Amino acid sequence: MSGTSAVFKREFQGYFSTPVAYVFICIFLFCTGIFTFYVGNFFVRGQADLKAFFSFHPWLYLFLIPAISMRLWAEERKSGTIELLMSLPVSLAGVVLGKFLAAWIFAGVALACTFPMWITVAYLGDPDHGIIIAGYVGSFLMAGGYLAIGSCISAVTKNQVIAFVLSVVVCFLFTVSGAPMVLDFFSAWAPQVLVEAIASFSFLRHFNAIVEGVIDLRDVVFFASLIALWLFANAIVIEMKKAG
Amino acid sequence: MLEIRNLVKRFGPFTAVDDVSFKVGKGEVLGFLGPNGAGKSTTMKMIAGFIAPTSGSVQVLGDDVAEAPLKTKAAIGYLPEGAPTYPDMTPLSFLNFVADARGLSGAERKRGIDAVVEHVNIGHVLNQSIDTLSKGYKRRVGLAQAILHDPPVLILDEPTDGLDPNQKHEVRELIRRMAAGKAIVISTHILEEVEAICTRAIIIAQGKILAEGQPADGGWRIGDHFAEPGRLDAVFRTITGGPAKEAA
């Protein structure tokens, strides 16, 4: 346990000891602002909710989360510090978890920095705060999902650019698998069960369900098990890579 | 304290380490010699528990590395090849991290960090980012990390590689000072280093142990060869198959 927290602490502080954290948070806030007010027509909609804000999160995360996750393992492998890390008396699972949690909490910090959005909508109208809280929970869970994918892929390569691009692609697949254009393509010929299965892997579907204000246990379980699965794969990849 | 039995490591069809066995006892400094690519680093990685052997076993203080990795890792101090450290960190935050990960806390942790900082003489650069340090200092920070928890077994992969003569001397002095209570393995291809600090040496090439030697009669006896002081390189070349004539 002390190992996991040591890794967590080092990683988390690492974001703030370099400009990475500040650049990321600024860009994230800037983008959420743009999307909410211009693309999402926050004012034109004339409704006191944050739907315009949350609905763009999957697409923002698609590019921003791989930017956080790409260095998680690729950098360690490239610089050889992974050898140092693995010679410490910390289990592999502990290291994977420590790194993931640091990145996740960091994403959470960036997300928390959007609170002025909440204040704005509360000032302008009388929003349902329960729904907004659900939106934040859903967004945080989804960020975890993207991060787990990115962390695993970062372990596959020593090259951060490759890690970034591959992560975006895989995250994209998980995002759009519930979109009509994908489902229409499959529903023309595939059995309904398969179409349903593909759709059920979609981040969009589970995220949108939560953003509607209903934190259904199934959606939470989806993200939790997805994170667990990708982190498990992450550990296996590291085990395989360091041997070869 | 350290016992290696019939260690084999294959990468696909390539055999990096081929049936290597040796023991290192308390107070011994074993020099691990060999040309580049001989399997020195691979063997050390297996001792440190970073990679798993294809077959054979490594025992540290009676525990098997494969069976109780956390226990053996706790007993080992390991300096990987090239002494990797995190460039964004300062030596102090780096050592704090290693102390945390090794479960040192409170007074023990403070004592440990103070002691290594003094040992490797990095007190005046503690709060500077590692990125900005010279190669010699980076190497010392890497070394500090390995000896922070005062491990009974020390595995140092080319600890003096890339250092200037003064720094080499310092690191050797440090190793010599620590040697009494520990089992130390250092890999090197600097033969004067072996004469300077090792109590025993193993020559390895293409994954196999070719010869073992120790100081004798004022020089070194390696396998069937005898080397006068300062003439270890000729013997090394004879054994590893290089042109021996040049050195003679």
Topology:
The complex is a heterodimer of chains A (244) and B (248).
Chain A: H1 2-17, H2 20-39, H3 42-45, H4 51-54, H5 57-69, H6 71-79, H7 81-86, H8 92-112, H9 115-124, H10 129-156, H11 160-176, H12 180-187, H13 192-200, H14 203-211, H15 217-243
Helix pairs in contact in A: 1-8, 2-5, 2-8, 5-10, 5-11, 6-10, 8-10, 8-15, 10-11, 10-14, 10-15, 14-15
Chain B: E1 2-11, E2 14-24, E3 29-33, H1 40-48, E4 55-60, E5 63-64, H2 69-75, E6 76-79, H3 91-101, H4 106-120, H5 135-147, E7 153-157, H6 165-178, E8 183-188, H7 191-197, E9 200-205, E10 208-216, E11 219-222, E12 225-227, H8 232-240
Parallel strand pairs in B: 3-8, 3-9, 6-7, 7-8
Antiparallel strand pairs in B: 1-2, 1-4, 4-5, 9-10, 10-11, 11-12
Features of the shown structure:
heterodimer, A: 244 residues, mainly alpha, B: 248 residues, alpha/beta, Rossmann fold, four-stranded antiparallel beta sheet, globular
In the predicted model, the low-confidence regions of chain A spanning at least 5 consecutive residues are none
Tell me what portion of residues of chain A adopts beta-strand conformation: under 5%
Helical residues, percent of chain B: 25-40%
* Total count of helical runs of at least 4 residues of chain B: 8
**How many beta-strand runs of chain A?**
0
**Tally of discrete structural domains of chain B:** 1
Q: What profile does the largest beta sheet of chain B have?
A: 8 strands, mixed
Portion of residues in beta strands of chain B equals 25-35%
How would you spell out the order of helices and strands of chain A? HHHHHHHHHHHHHHH
Uncertain stretches of chain B: 243-248
